[in-house]
Amino acid sequence: MNDVNQHVAEVLQLFGMCAKLAPLFDKGSPSDSAKRVLDTMRNTIEDLWAWLSANAATKFEGASLDSAHPGYIIRDEVLVPFYLLEDLPGTTDLAEIAALGLSLRLTEDGVICLSGSTALLGTLKFVGDIDYCEYALPGTYSTADVVASANVHAVRTVLPLCERIKVVNPKWSQSCIDWDSRAPVELKRCIDEDGAYQLKLDFITSTQTVGPVEATNMALLLVAGREEEIVRASFAAQEVPIPGSALPRPLCDPLQLGRYINFLIEQVQHYAVSKPVKALKRALSLARILMIPHWCDKLIRYLQEPQAALRAAMEARAQLLERLSGTIDASSARAQTREGLHLALESMIAEMEKILKTSSGGAAGTAGDLWAAELSLALNSFIKDAREAIAAA
User: Do the strands 129-136 and 211-221 form a parallel or antiparallel pair, or are they unpaired?
Assistant: First the structure.
């Protein structure tokens, strides 16, 4: 135990340095001397995480160490950062969620990952949507491939049902209900002429694991020479690659880790009042990567209160149901699929409402207000402790 605590203390010191250095290079590349320092930090993080990963892998049946990629553990054919291992769903649920992700890819050779709260599904139990992030590797796709794949998703009439395809920058969006022969042409122009590299595909589907739900794929079309710029759109530290292919960037990159830690701190503070459940999920991710076990336990207890993940998941489905109800689909096949989703959503929302009412004793409003006020204080205390944990660097 003393060895583990010593390694955790060393990691925290390195993370403090990462968090301080990351903003210095947000708008520019490191000098040669800075690169040497960062390389040394990366090597040290890799050594520390290799030790901690080996220690973590021994505690989970069926898990094995990925010695080629420091920080990762192999479990059920996915690569998981060692600090997220205990949050993954069980084998059966993970297999279904992984298979769904592979079906949503834009590129056949792309690396797709469970992302964000989806990677915490085993702990959260309830989620409002399922998020994936896809890395399309340079040289493995053409614009024609991407457009053809997007077109297949857009015109599908069965689950998973694609609702919208978006280009993040420059902004372009097309509903799949209105998808026609002009849409692929415009998507091709956005990629070839405007340099679009970040596409978001919005789906609706239904799974045994979480029921009817939205599923999104944030696809990053990596471009040779611009990989470092493009991968800033996401964080390897919150992603679980499936089916076990390493991301096109190391998990132990100091600047990426620093940006991720700063991002999580900012997100917790920003959403603590307006969206406390979102803040709580970000806090758990931060507590996991900083390896603060007593806070992990506290945050999980808050998340598993009915007012947290359950209520948030129910409200997300209610919003989805409202959107489905307000949309008319001219395609009879798509309309039939949407009607099935509509009925499944109504049933699941009713079931969630019953659980929530039973667990709150019928006083959901009062309980919710008290819970939110208590949580705000807890999150402020957590951020204070997290900052202190990395302040010694």
Answer: parallel
Per-residue pLDDT tens over the stretch 323-333: 998 888 878 89
Evaluate whether residue 302 is within a structural domain.
yes
Q: How far apart are CA 121 and CA 84, in angstroms?
A: 10
Q: How far apart are the first and last CA of the chain?
A: 23
Task: Report the share of the chain in percent with pLDDT over 70.
Answer: 95
d(CA 217, CA 115): 9
Concatenating the DSSP letter of every residue in 135-185 gives: EE-TTS--HHHHHHHHHHHHH--SSSEEEEEEETTTTEEEEGGG--THHHH
| Spatial separation of the C-alpha atoms in residues 193 and 347, rounded to whole Å | 46
Domain annotation covers residue 20: no
What tokens were used for 325?
């109800």
CA distance 198 to 169: 7
Residue 378 lies in a domain: yes
Q: Residue ranges of the alpha helices (H) in the chain? A: 2-21, 32-57, 91-103, 121-124, 143-155, 182-192, 227-230, 254-271, 276-290, 293-303, 311-325, 332-360, 364-390
pTM for the full model? 0.93
Q: What is the total count of domains within the chain?
A: 1
> What DSSP letter does each residue of 253-294 carry, written as one string?
-HHHHHHHHHHHHHHHHHHTTTSHHHHHHHHHHHHHHHT-HH
Radius of gyration of the chain (CA): 22
Alpha-carbon span 182 to 227, nearest angstrom: 30
Q: Domain limits at 304? A: 268-390
pLDDT tens column, 215-274: 999 999 998 888 777 887 789 999 999 976 777 778 899 999 999 999 999 999 999 988
- Structure tokens given for 90: 């069980």
Q: Please, are residues 219 and 132 in contact by the beta-carbon 8 Å criterion?
A: no
Contact 135, 222 (CB under 8 A): yes
Rounded to whole angstroms, the Cα distance separating 177 from 202 reads: 12
Residue 39 lies in a domain: no
Using DSSP's 3-state secondary structure scheme, residue 68 falls into coil
